[in-house]
Amino acid sequence: METLAPKVVGPHDGKAGFLGSIGVRFMIDGAEASNRFSLVEHPMSAHALAAPMHRHAREDEYSYVLEGSIGALLGDSVVIGKPGDLVFKPRNQWHTFWNAGDKPARILEIISPAGFENFFRELVDLGGVAKAHPQALGELCGRYELEMDPNSIPKLIERFGVQFPGEPIR
Asked: Count of domains in the chain?
């Protein structure tokens, strides 16, 4: 059995980027955890919609709310997570999430199994969802077995009073 090295990630450690609507800070990569999971932080400006409706074929996501208020549409259910809450987003379920408050929010996102953190890396390099060329975004989604519905954005903005794209948190 492989022995993994211990690691301490400080509050400002890890490469950070902007996904076009929310931020991302890479904390634990899959290779550091035998590809069992990865961990990223998502800082979100007030009322920022994280992404269009989407679903993952390969991974589950667990969002632990550190600060602020997070809304999530999971299939047909709407939930609100407050600090200390964990929101489970299972694979193969259409979902999205957003900052449901007037102040910045932050979540820790556990991705299991690992690998999808690399989608975020590539998306940062493309300028985020809103700026990526549609063909490049489509190819990226295909490689990570992610279905995304950009046509859902106007309805999500109207229904939840969110904005897309969001603003980077400084």
From this structure: 1
